[in-house]
Amino acid sequence: MESPNNIYEHYYPVEDVNISNEAGNISKSDKYGYFVVYSLKNGNYDFALDYKYGYNLHLKVKICDSSVVISTPITMICCDFNKDGYINAKDFAVLKKHINGYESTIDNKYFDINKDGIVDDDDWKIGKNFLLCKNNNEIIMSYSNAEYDIIPATAETAGNEEEKPNGIDVVDGGLD
């Protein structure tokens, strides 16, 4: 499941990513991977995206007299089920035990990698393909060390002011 340039090609929504800044937790991604941040004034913002079973990211956003909609997915690396800082065979042993019916303290939704509503061998295959990917450590490092700069010149501008509460600025992003 590698592309010609050895980048893993499948992306699935990531639920329950905490979005925070210096004010604390301000949003959380939904089951489709989307999140909204309200009440931002013009300026530069740094957000931390923290996922319970994956690697954290930093997102930089510049607001200038309009709302910003991030139209391209923000890629997060998931599946660090044992939270040791690595995605390896130990994590997929946890997944396989869950598929085989062993008790787990991790909610089922985190094991449903392809988001089809069922934790099964398809999820195991997705994990296994990533695990066997020749350069998975490079992929993990490139995404986990990435910082996303989003400015209005490179993002879509949200349209209808009436749809936003009190005409406030919004950052809307999707996580895959």
CATH architecture: Orthogonal Bundle
Q: Let me know the largest β-sheet.
A: 5 strands, mixed
Strand arrangement, major sheet: 2-1-4-5-7
- Which runs of at least 5 residues are low in confidence (pLDDT < 50)? 1-8, 152-172
Order of helices and strands: EEEEEEHHHHEEE
- Spell out the CATH superfamily: Dockerin domain
Q: How many independent structural domains?
A: 1
CATH topology: Type 1 dockerin domain
Structural class: alpha+beta
In angstroms, what is the radius of gyration? 18 Å
Instruction: Sum up the overall morphology in one term.
Output: elongated
| Beta-strand segment tally | 9
Helix content: 10-25%
- Beta-strand content bin: 15-25%
CATH class: Mainly Alpha
Q: Number of DSSP helices?
A: 4
Compute the separation of the termini in Å: 17 Å
